Amino acid sequence: MTYNKIISVVKRDGTNEELKVKKIKDIIKLACRNLDVDPLELEMEAGLQFRDNMQTVEIQQILIKTASEMVTKDPKTHGWIKVARNLLLYEIIRSAMLIRNYDTYGYGDFYELIKTGVEKEYYDKRLLNYSKEEIIEFQNYIKKERDLNLTYAGLNQLKTRYLLNQIGELPQEMFMLISMFLALPVPVSERKQFILRNYNHLSNLEYMMATPSLSARKKDRNLASCNVISVDDNIESIMDTYRISGLLSKGGAGIGSYWGRIRGTGAEIQGQKGCANNISSWLRILNDIAVSVDQLGQRKGAISCTLDIWHIDIYDYLNLRREAGDEKLKAHEIFPAVSIPRLFLKRVETNSKFTLFDPYYVKKTLTKIGTINGINVKNKTLADFYGDEFEAVYNYIENLDVENSKTIQALDLAKFLIASMYETGATFVCFRDTVNEANPNKHKGIIECLNLCTEIAQNTGALSDFKQELDGDKIKIEYKTKGVVQCNLASLNLTKITDDISLQKTVKDAVIALNSVIDMQHNSIPETKFHNEKYRAIGLGVCGYHSYLAKNTTMFESEKNLELTDILFEKIAYYTIKASMELARDFGKSYEYFENSDWQKGIWFNRRIEEIHADSKADLDWIGLYNLVQMFGLYNGYLLAIAPTASISLILGVSPGIDPVEGGFYIERNANGNIPIVMPYYEECPLAYKSRFFINPEFIIKATSIRQKWIDQAQSMNLFLDRNKVTGKIILDYIIKASDSGVKSMYYMRTKRPDEITCVNCES
After folding, report:
1. Is 673 left (phi over 0), alpha (psi -120 to 50) or beta?
2. What stretches of 604-686 show up as alpha helix (H) in DSSP?
3. DSSP string of 415-467, one letter each residue
C-alpha cells in the first residue's frame, strides 16, 4: 500500500494526522491470519478508495466493505467473508474501548458495564440483584473466542439491531446478560448452572431467542414476538383493538387480528338498516396505526387481519392490497389473511354454489332457532363452529332466507382469492378446521385466526369480554375473555444437533428460558396477562432446515428428507413435552387449563397416544411420557410453533426457518447494505442448496405435512413460484393439497420472473 502523496485523516476527536499506512497493514494482516487469502489484495482494493481528509472510522468501514465485496460464488474467495467478520469485530471492540474508556484490546469490566447500563436506564435494574462477586464470576466465564462462531452477516446483524452500542456492549456480554436476566425466575439453587448452560447454548449458536426476547436485559421491554386479538361486533371492541394495536406496535410486536364477527356492509345498527360500513373502512384505520406507530422507530408496525371466506365483504377485503377496486377501501400496509373451512374447498372441487353471510344476521337467525341437530346455536355465529358442526350449521342456514346473504360459485371466489395471492404475495391462509381439530385446548375455546406469521394457533376471545373497573383508587381487572394472545418464541439451530442427548439438553433449557420470558414479560397492557397466566403458551421452533439437509448431504426433493424430518421432529416434540412435564413436576403445578385438555386425554397432535407410540420411527416411549404427563401435568398449554426466523437465522448463520434458500451463496439485500451469504456446508454439498424457485412447491407442502404431525401449533410455510409458469389452477391445487395434507397455514407466496431466477447450485 503506497501513495504518491501524503493523505491526511480526521481523528475521532476532530484533529488531523497523517494516514498511518503501517497500522492499516497490521490490521489487515491480523484479520487475514490463518486464512487462505492474500492481505495485499485487500490493501490494494481498499487503498484505491482512500481520500484526503477522510474520517478514521471510514477507513475501517472501507476495509470491511471491500473485503465483503471480494466474496463471490467461487469457494476460493470465501475466506474474505471471515476477513470482513474479523475487521467488523475489531471495529466493534475498538468502539467499545472508547465508549467504556479502557486501553487493553478486548472485553472490558463487565460489572461496570451493567452498573452504567442500569444508571443510564438501558438495562433492567434487576440485573443488579446479582452481587458484584457473582457478576465477576460470570465475566470470567465469558468465552471471547466465541465471537468467531459468528459469520460476517451474523455479527453485522448483532451490531445493527441487537447490541447496545451506546454503552459499548459486546456480543458475548449480550449473551451472558440475556442468560442472567432469564435466570431470575429460576430457583436460586439452580440459577448459576442455568446461566452458564444457557450462555453456552446462545454463544455456541445452538438455539436463539426470537428478536423481542433478545431484548431480555433491557429496561421495560416487551419480550413477546407478536400478539393475536379478536374483535367483537361493537364499537367498544373495535376502539379497544385500535388502542391495543397502537400500544403493542409501539413496543415492537407484530399483531394478528380476527375481524370475522364484524357485521357486513349495509347491516343495521341500533335497528337502523343500511348503516354499517364495509369492513375495509375499519381496516383503513388499523392501516394508519401500522404506519404511524412504528416499532421503536425502526420500522412500520406489522399487522395482519383475518376474515372468513364466507363473510359478505370478502371480495372488497381481498382487494385490500391490490391495485384493482375502490381506493377508498384500500389498506396497503395491512397483511390480509383468509380463514378457510374444509367445506369451501369441497364446494370448489365440485364447482358448487357457496353462500356469503353477514355474521350479524347469522347470529340473529341462530338465536331464534336455538338448536340445530342437537348443536346449541343461541347467541352464536358461524365463527363459533368448526369441522362437522360448522358444516351442519352452515348447510342448515344456507336453506334459510338469511338477510344480507349472497350465493355465488365457490370456484369464482377461489379464483378471486388466487388473484389476490398472486398479485400481492401477501394474502395468507388459515385452514380453520385443521387448526381447531388439532387444538389441544379446544375444551376452553376456539382458534379464530393465527398470528401475523401464521405459526401461532391458540385460543382467542373477543375483547369486549374484558372488563376493567375502579375499586376505590385501584383498577380492578375482571377477566371474562380468552385475552390477547402473546407469542413467546425461540428456535433451535438444526445444524448444531449432534446427538439425542445434546438435543434434549438444548430443548430443556430453551423451554426454561421461554417460561422465563413469560415471567419477566413487561406487560404494557393488562389484556395480555390473562392468556399468559392461563395457558403459559410458548412456541419452540427451528431454523436452518435447508442447512440441516445440506449437512446431511440430502436433497430437498428427496424421500431421505422426509425420513430425516419425520424422525427429527418427533424427537423435538418428545423432548419439548418432556421438558414442560418436568417443569410441572418441579414446580408442583400444571398450566391452569390442563384439566380436560387433549394433553391430559392423550390426544396429542390430533392422534391418540397409542397410535403415536405404534408409529414412532425414533423408537421413543410415548406411552411412558404420557403416563408421566398424566401424573405431573404440563407447565405449558401450547408448546411448538415454527416462525420465519428471518432475523435470527442471520445471527446463527443458517437458512431461515423451514424455507429453502436462494442458493448456497447469495447476496442478502437489506437496510444494512448488500451482505454476502455463504450457507454452511455449501462447499461440502453445493447441490443440496438447490435454489428455492427450482424446488417443486408440492415437496415443500409434503415436508410441511410431515413436520405438522409433531407440532401442536403451526408453521410459517412459504411457497416459491416461477411467475411465468404458475397458473391459477396450479395455485388452487397447492391450496387444496396443503389442506388435504393436514397443513394448518400458508404464509407468503413468493413469485419471480424467469429472468430474475438463477440457480447457481444447479449449474454443475
Report:
1. left
2. 609-615, 622-632, 648-652
3. HHHHHHHHHHS--EEEEHHHHHHT-TTGGG-B-----TTS-----B-BGGGEE
Half-sphere exposure of 546 (CA within 13 A, CB side): 29
At 297, the pLDDT band (50, 70, 90 cuts) reads low
Q: Which residue has the cell 409434503?
A: 702
Q: Which of 226, 453, 487, 685 is catalytic?
A: 453
The CB-side HSE value for 275 (13 A sphere, CA atoms) comes to 7
Q: Within 10 A of 374 (CB to CB), how many other CB atoms are there?
A: 7
All residues at 6 or more sequence positions from 250 whose CB lies less than 8 Å from its CB, including other chains: 293, 295, 296, 524
Count CA within 13 A, CB hemisphere, residue 261.
25
Would the pLDDT of 731 be above 70? yes
Is 455 catalytic? The answer is yes
Q: Cα separation of 343 and 654, whole Å?
A: 39
Q: How far apart are CA 596 and CA 603, in angstroms?
A: 11
What pTM was estimated for this model as a whole? Answer: 0.94
Name the β-bridge partners of 669.
Answer: 674
Question: What SS3 state is found at 640?
Answer: strand
pLDDT for residue 3: 47
Cell of 248: 403493542
Contact by Cβ (8 Å): 307, 279 = yes
428-483 confidence digits (pLDDT tens) = 999 999 999 999 999 999 999 999 999 999 999 876 655 555 566 665 555 445 57
Give 761's contacts (C-beta < 8 A, 6+ positions apart): 663, 664, 686, 687, 688, 689, 690, 691
Catalytic residue among 206, 448, 455, 662: 455
Catalytic residue of the set 222, 287, 436, 451: 451
- DSSP string of 240-262, one letter each residue: HHHHHHHHHHHTT-EEEEE-TTS
544 Cβ neighbours under 8 A, 6+ residues apart: 493, 494, 495, 649, 652, 654, 655, 680
The owner of cell 375495509 is 280
Cell of residue 453, nine digits? 406469521
State how far the Cα of 552 lies from the Cα of 688, in Å rounded to an integer.
9
What is the biggest distance separating any 2 CA atoms in the chain, rounded to whole angstroms?
93
| Per-residue cell: 695 | 424446488
Neighbours of 723 (CB within 10 A): 14
Q: Order the strands of the 16-18 sheet from edge to edge.
A: 16-18, 8-10, 54-55
User: Side chain identity at 108, as an amino acid letter?
Assistant: G
